[in-house]
Amino acid sequence: MKPTQPVIQLAGQAAITYVPVMNHLFHTAPLTPEAWIGILGVGLVASVAVAADKHFRRSII
User: Fold this and answer.
1) Where in the chain does DSSP place strands (E)?
2) Is the pTM of this model over 0.70?
3) What angle do CA 37, 42, 48 make, to 5 degrees?
4) How far apart are CA 50 and CA 46, in angstroms?
5) Exposed, middle or buried by CB within 10 Å (0-12, 13-18, 19+), for 22?
6) CA torsion 25→7→30→33, rounded to 10°?
């Protein structure tokens, strides 16, 4: 994967989410700060759970 691909993908996703014309075309709406807090919270919990699982699996083997 080229280093620019994630940047292009992120820019495209942000455009679909936050540019009004794209909102109309794709029937999307910008995320609220409260939604971002929820998204980041779930992501943090998932990351901690995966890290804990890896730690425990490595200590068993």
Assistant:
1) none
2) no
3) 125
4) 6
5) middle
6) 170
